[in-house]
Every structure is written in structure tokens, then in C-alpha cells.
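Protein modeling request. Please complete all fields; requests missing the sequence field cannot be processed.
Requester role: graduate student
Desired output: 3D structure, C-alpha cell encoding
Chains: 1
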Amino acid sequence: MGANKTLRVGVLTPVSTVNPREAQDFVSQTVVTQIYEPPFAWPEAGRLPEPVLFEDRLRQDGPSEVSAAVRPDVRFSDGTPLTARHVADSLARVVSLRDHVQVEARGDRVVFHLERPNARLDLVLAQRFCGVTLEARGALHGTGPYMLAPGSTQDCTRLVRNPHARKAAAIDEIVVRTYLPDVLGRPEALLAALEAGEVDFTNVLSREDIMRLKNVRRLTEPGSSTAILYMNTERPGLGDARVRKAIALAIDRLEIAKLFYATATAFAATHLLPPMLGRGNDGLTPDLAKARALLADPDVRKPARLSLLIIFGPRPYLPNPRKVADLIASQVDRLGIAIDILPTATLQEYRTQVQRGAYDLALAGWIADTLDPVDFLETALGSESIPSPDRKIASGYNLSRWRNRETDEALAQLREEPRDEVRAQLLRRIADEVPLLPLMYGPTIYAHAWRVKNFTAAPLGIPSFAELDLQ
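Delivered output (471 residues):
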């Protein structure tokens, strides 16, 4: 019997949760993808989602009812056979799903009662937060290729093979270890570990960072994420679209991209959707004179100071959040508006501030969960995506706290009929109202040791480690 194969994964922030319904950060999403399976697999471009936990695709049983039978050969990692009741109970806990869909078990079938039309429910059921879980003895079990190993911590998370998985993974164990950035936000420890052969795989570095590596394979794919400056529309002063637009026009997005990329024009944002989801131009070209003129209107109450909350730790779309925050502060200061930067050190600290809405501006962003532009737009702009302390939601990131009937109606229309002109009209409205300013696109970056075999880039940046092998 050969030695165990262990894939060592390096990350910059700890794993915050292994609950797929609560995983918001990229690292936690990478981990839960290995443990749990949603009812459908995310499809390749131009194809329909393939059933994973169901025997077939959804069957239309009535005007607002669809159903599917559960596969009989699926078991959780503790050996419990998967039933329709398990699937229904798990999906009923998904906040963004239960707002519009009621789920029940009927024999071996899972029945979905739709409160509004959704021709792409199967795409929703392919998302990570729909990963089916079983809670037993205080732990969550999944049906995926791996399971959480005893003794795992947030800084060092260990996954081992699920003995009941339908297909055994080639690699026995996955170790996800945190290498914290230095005091300047640079990933020096992770870079050194990769170069020394102590880490086999990472997908959290920036393009400029991986160019410093020599002893690994490097891959760069089109971006699936956008760095965003959110303007809290519930706060004094920022309820006025003229103030928000003035702030947007004072910010030079090209200068922000130049902080990290030699080819900055390829990464400076021109509208909200990342390149792999669509192209466009919001027309928010920097214009300091126009920004000052907007604030000079006697009806406008210009704020003297604004707080800027920044996300903890680097992200694919924000290689160094503090550096970007400092540049934004200096650019907005030219309007006579002082910026107080509010750094956060942990996910919990950041999440608490976000849920309370305790900021004027927020520097963060979003990584696409799916290849459907509507999902991205709904996450950033939908009223139901506004975070709150009593709403644990993996796909709610409307940090602008933008409540707008026309926006919600346009999103609902896109759900029923995803026409390009409807989407373009919505994006024009957002460019006019400016609840947020897209700043920079994040490429999908991979670096892995040469001993890693069978790797192919995943469309949304999160691979299935079960598909890999080690030499």
C-alpha cells in the first residue's frame, strides 16, 4: 500500500465556516465545495445543469410546482443514505431560496412550490449555498468527495476522503493552511512557502504576486470578480445621488488598477459585471470639476467626513485593501470630504460591521457564484440581499443597502426573461443613481506545484480537488 497523498493548499485568510449556507469568503467557499454537493452541477457554457443528487432534471408538475426524484445510491459521509427529506430540510434552510420557493418531500421526490416564475431553478440549485447537509451529533455531513477531519482548525483545516463518496478521490487528504499577510498586507509568507515547495496549490494570489514565483506552474484566467466601493444609502448625505456621483467622479479607477497591474486598462472596471459575465461602460470617467460642481449646488448637503470600512485580508479582486483605501481617501479628499478608514482584522469583526450597516462607505467586492449575470446583480443590488444580524445568507452582499422598487422589478423581470436590453437598462440606472462604484476586476489566478496533475481551470475559480492527483 502506497503512502498517503496530501495536497497542501495555501491561503491568506482562515476558513471561517464549513456551512455552505453561510460561506461568504472565497477560502470557505473553496472548502465547502469539496465537502457538499448541490442537487445539480454547474454546467459548462451553453449546456443545461446535470443532476447530481437527483435521478433526472426537474419535472413540471403544475403551473407553480416542479419536482425531482432523489438518487438511491447517495450516502452522507457518516453512512446515512440520502433521502428526499434530507434534501428538502437542507434546502429549506437556504435563506435566498426559501424567500421564493417552498420545499417539501413527497415520497422519494423533492417538490418545489414556486411563489414566482423561475425558468432557471436548476441553476439556483447548482449553487454552492444549496449544498445538501446532514446534521448529526453536532457536526455537518455532506455527500461530496471529502469530509472534515477531526482536529481541524480555522488556520489549518484538514479534509480526508469521504468513505461513502460515489467516486473515490485520488488524493487522500487536503490540508488548507493560512499564511497571513505581513503588516503591509503583502503575501510574503505564502510566496515563500510556494517557492520552497511547502505548498502545492493556491488560488488567492494576485497576478503580480505569482509573477515572482519560479518553481510553480502559473495560470491566469479571465476575471470572475469585481472590487466595489459601496456607498451606504441609508447614511446621512449618501442618500443624495448627487453626492454619490460626485464621489464616483473624484475616483480614478485606472490609477487604482495601476497599483497592482502593469496592464492597468485590462483591470480597471468600466461597469459592475466582471468580464466573464458581460461587457459595458457606466460612463463614470473621473472628472473632478464636474464632481465639485455637483457638490456646489445649494440644495446639496456635502458631508464633511465619511467612514470607509475595508474588508479584512486580500482578495482576488483586492490584492491589498489598505493600499486601495488610502488612494481612495486621497482622491476623495480633493472634494473637501475627509475619509476615516476603518480596518477590520477578522471575518467576524467585518461581518458585524456590515450587518449593522455601521459605515458610510465600504471597500469590498464580490466573486461570482455562478455564470449567470442576474445572480451577480441580485447579490449586489437586490433589496433582499441587504445584510442584517438576523439574516445569515451566503449570497447577500448589497452593502450599499440599496432599496429601490424599480431595481427589484428589473431583477425580477430578468429572472423571468433574461434579455440584454433589460439588463442594460438596469445597469444604466445604477450608473445614474451610483449606489456603488465598480473599481477593478480580479483575474482568477492559480499557482501549483509541478507534482500536481490533472489540473484544469474552473470557470469560477474554485476547483474540485477530487479531480486532481499527485505525482
